[in-house]
Description:
9 helices; alpha/beta; disordered C terminus; Rossmann fold; about 350 residues
Amino acid sequence: xxxxxxxxxxxxxxxxxxxxxxxxxxxxxxxxxxxxxSRDRRRxxxxxxxxxxATVYGGYEELLADPDIDAVYIxxxxxxxxxxxLRALGEGKHVLCEKPLAANHEEALLIxxxxxxxxxxVVMEAFHxxxxxxxxxxxxxxxxxGPLRKLHVRFAFPLLRRHDIRWDFRLxxxxxxxxxxxxxxxxxxxxxxxPQAVTANAAVAAPEIDRRMDAELLFPGGLRASLTAxxxxxxxxxxxxxxxxxxxxxxVRNPFAGHRSGAIRMSGTALSSTATSYPSxxxxxxxxLKAFVAAIRGVSPNLTPPSTSVRNLxxxxxxxxxxxxxxxxxxxxPANGSPDHKDNSTKT
Length: 348
């Protein structure tokens, strides 16, 4: 095989794997998924047969040790992300890791520190929406709004599978971790300073697991932002963002999956009544994998490096604390200690 190909291994035969990596890889001529690791051998073999993957490993460590793999896609439960990301770096692999990058802020800092020791390796958090043209257009149109005054982001859907890993506190589950991280990533993309979590209210499915989270954030200068993240509540399903400025408003429909009826509508500006929609042929995941390869080749930037994950998880942890819920536990950072790092984020 030509060394121009990126030889990719997949950790975890998760539900997200086909849409997140396997289908997009089939559309890119310079990417080949050569191995998949799953502790459920049957499921791993099924994916291998469907996507013509040559090797199936029963252990994640076996795949990471494979010298013929250049990069890995981590599709494991949240609580395992940091552990196997760090192992992948130790084996010299580039990493595309599902969101959120880690279980909490402390783990994200540890990853940031370790990634800095491997400047030749790309570590990209899989916020696929950031690589879609819709995200570019949000940023390009912000100046039309004038000074920003208000921001609201909502991501609500019903997760009806009772035994889904996203309901498991030990696996770093919860609405804020699953869909709230999207809202946080959009807010942090727009705002360059870090906010204070003023209030947060959680509806719980279990004592430590939020099924819905509503939070109010205050940025330096007085701008207020709010978010709603729901996996099961009376909140109607929907994904949108509203960004208000002194000169107008931007409403973004489905900002996190632009290929699924995503659209931007401007009002009260020179672009009033202007609506931009996006074709469905190329998914957000396609754009993400293409960007991952380009970042490895050194021809385009990594928009979601560990530094952005540190900001996102700092805010997610702050929201949990404001709601009176515990931060998601770590498997690699002692509960009574913290890794050796410098924390440059704003404290809340």
